[in-house]
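Practice problem: Receptor expression-enhancing protein
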Amino acid sequence: MSAIMSGYFDKLDKKLHEKNKINEYFEKAEKALGVKRVYLAVGLLSIWALYMILGRGAELICNLIGFGYPAYVSLIALETSSKEDDTKWLIYWVTFASLSLVEFFSDIIISFIPFYWLMKCLFLIWCFAPFENNGSKFLYLRIIRPIFLKNRKGIDEALNKAASTAGGLAKEAAGKIIAGKTE
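Answer key — structure tokens:
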């Protein structure tokens, strides 16, 4: 095994020996199967990656990973008094929404990209990874925020106009409904 791969295996093995719930399962599996937990983890990741490439439901799995875990930890963040975790997850959701918007308009192109769901899933994991400068923060600071700040005035004007128009239409519709009932 190359020195680079050996270094990654060592880092992963160290992480897999930290005390947490998931590693308790790896410890039990390691003892039961007689296989080092680092190899179990690499095997599971390989099976997952292969399934994301070839399996049915890869889109659902990717979206559950990109939505399920972040939604859960966002709820936890809302229940803490810290503003930092709220900001972190708001940045993730803005990034997630931006990706979803781009993805919606490029749906036809996406169907021709091999391994798209695997790449998207890895991208989303990078976006919510538990380190300071994860993907969502990087994309927010480098791309999303500058575009937003440059276009904020126009966006605000368009939203105000849309809200005013919708409010007028709602009043008109309500008026017609009320008038129709009294006749």
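Discussion: The mean pLDDT is 90. Students who identified this feature from the tokens alone can consider the problem solved.
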